[in-house]
Every structure is written in structure tokens, then in C-alpha cells.
Amino acid sequence: MGIAAPASHLRRDQRELFFRGVEALKDMGLEVHYRADILDRRHLYFAGEDEDRAKELIDLLLDPTIKAVFFLRGGYGTQRMIPYLGDLEGIAPKVIVGGSDLTVLHAFLGRKWGWVTFYGPHLTTPSFAEGERKTRKSFAQTLTSPSPPDPIPCEVLRKGKARGVIF
Hints:
Distance between the termini: 22 Å
Helix content: 25-40%
CATH class: Alpha Beta
CATH architecture: 3-Layer(aba) Sandwich
């Protein structure tokens, strides 16, 4: 499992969430890889320059030992690195998991190369990093099992049918 930081860096008071999230992945039996300076605050707001954040993601996507990429956090900045992703055609698709402002990355990978991605928690999402059992169980099952995760009960607000493209 590779960890990338495509948007903003973590505030100092959020660093413990990072380490808890990494431990959660290791507890699932996953080997976790991330750049040594992922928590550095080299930039005023972002986790590095746009080109550097794109290169970090490309390096994880090109690494044959990395089967999935999980993200440090969402937030503004992901869309700024899209022009630097280059040509990923021919790269074996990886499991990509993230949400929020990472939606632009899901759309880019889906439209450009037909990849299937997962809208889900970030490494530092409190319900994931702080041990919410259902979140972690669903995440682990989605990553490691061909069967779908346990259904989440929900209430139908308005019955009906809809059509559309799901990325």
C-alpha cells in the first residue's frame, strides 16, 4: 500500500492521525510505503510543489510492488497536479482510494484510462485512523476480498429510478 499526499500537508496537530492510520493498515497485514518526508511542511499550504506531488503519485503507480494507493488527505491542490501526471497508459491499474477533493483524480483516471477507483476514507480520516471498526472492516474487505463489503443499512428518502454514468 502506497501513501501519497496530493493536496495539502497535515497540520502538526493531525500527525498522530497519520501514525494511527499507518498502524491500522499494518494491522490489516498490509506493507505500507510512503516517502520519508511526507510529513514535512516544505510549502506554505501544499505537501510540496505540484510537479513533486504528481511525481510522488507516478512513482507509486509505476512501482510493481505497490498494489494500491491510499491518500494522506483530501483538500485543495489535487487538481493542480493533474497536468503533470503525464502518460500513464499501459500501466497496470492499481487500487486507488480517497475522497473529497480527490474526486478530480478519480474522474481523471476513469475517463483517461478507464480505471476503476474507490471513493473512500483517507489515511487520516478520523473514523479510519482512530479505529472505527465498521470503517476499517469495510475497507479491508473491499481491498482483500472479491465479495462486496457488508451492506450499510440506509433509509430510502424517495423511491424511483435514475440513470447516469458512475465513475
